[in-house]
Design goal:
Chain lengths: ~200, ~200
């Protein structure tokens, strides 16, 4: 049987610390973070193939036409999405592939792709608010908006397979890695081993 | 919400190394092994409350009558089984409780108890045979019988949630512990946290 990595789809509200946890995860052996494609122009410090795959609108629409986008959407006049052929290649080359996406994107991926969904959760409401305030990048109105959005997203955590609390970045990354490790132990992913054993009898 | 440990039910064919893996597991923090009750007499080095709970036939039948046996059976004129009230107490006191049992017992437990079933698997057919031969406690006929029984049991591995290969004792114990850790991250075991967050809004 061809070896295949586990796809972990991670979502979580703004301020929960997705970036830090993903940074910790990518430092671990066998873990790779999936990169989105976009038609928007790169910002000053962004690199192609690191932050995004920066592609033209024509190229993006070609992927759509070839059914080669796992999910995509249009935001402020630009496309954002995950290229299916790139994701399949990543899963062949890595034990664990992490894909960070919002709740709507996660549910679209789960419709067509074998994956495990993890919802990254704040330790508490107060802590989430504190983290948003401490970022210092947003005014009160914008923080209020983000907290409201957080409630909408948290209500959809029930759609996910696992909930990981980001109390501590290292621990949260470890939990997500454990979810991936255990996924490969599931009977449905080990059927070949059972069949092999039974066939070996004769 | 009351904290409740995860019940891991472990089965596996004779010779797979259940004893060694369980011994490794019990040395880990927060892990406890469930002890069976029996009506047979203790052997020379067996201790009550360590190897088994040695109880009288009357006492055992009382547990049955009170619906206080999770599962039980009669073998060579003696009862063997798991006392429900003791198991519930263990789950309150420990993060992880391991219960080793055969395939029939495992399916009976799963009918009435929230648990995760792990099938301990040999690295290969040849390795299982080798382990049985190396034990030196059995003749050729008995080894053949045990291997036949192993095939019957392996075919029922599909009923389990996870398959852990005992290639290395430490690794197998670690895998089982990970299964338990990840179980507590499942959404169904974290619903309180989501509810708490949503209620905190106001």
């Amino acid at each position: 049987m061809e070896k295949k990595g586990v796809l972990i789809v991670v979502s979580g509200p703004s301020g929960v610390g997705k970036g830090s946890v993903l940074k910790e995860l990518v430092s671990l052996k066998g873990v790779f973070i999936s990169i989105s494609a976009t038609t928007r122009s790169p910002r000053e410090f962004e690199k192609d193939g690191v932050d995004y795959y920066f592609i033209s609108r024509e190229e993006f629409e070609e992927h759509i036409a070839k059914n080669d986008m796992v999910e995509y959407n249009e935001y402020c006049g630009n496309y954002y999405g995950t290229i299916k052929s790139k994701l399949i290649k990543l899963l062949k080359e890595n034990e664990v592939v992490i894909l960070e996406i919002d709740v709507n994107g996660a549910s679209r991926i789960a419709e067509s792709f074998d994956c495990v969904r993890v919802f990254l959760f704040p330790p508490s409401f107060e802590e989430l608010k504190k983290r948003l305030v401490e970022r210092g990048t947003e005014n009160e109105e914008s923080i209020k908006k983000r907290l409201n959005q957080a409630f909408i997203e948290v209500k959809r955590a029930y759609e996910y397979d696992y909930l990981v609390v980001n109390e501590n970045i290292k621990k949260a990354a470890e939990d997500i890695l454990n979810v991936a490790k255990v996924e490969s132990l599931k009977i449905k992913n080990q059927e070949c081993r059972i069949e092999e054993f039974i066939e070996n009898r004769f």
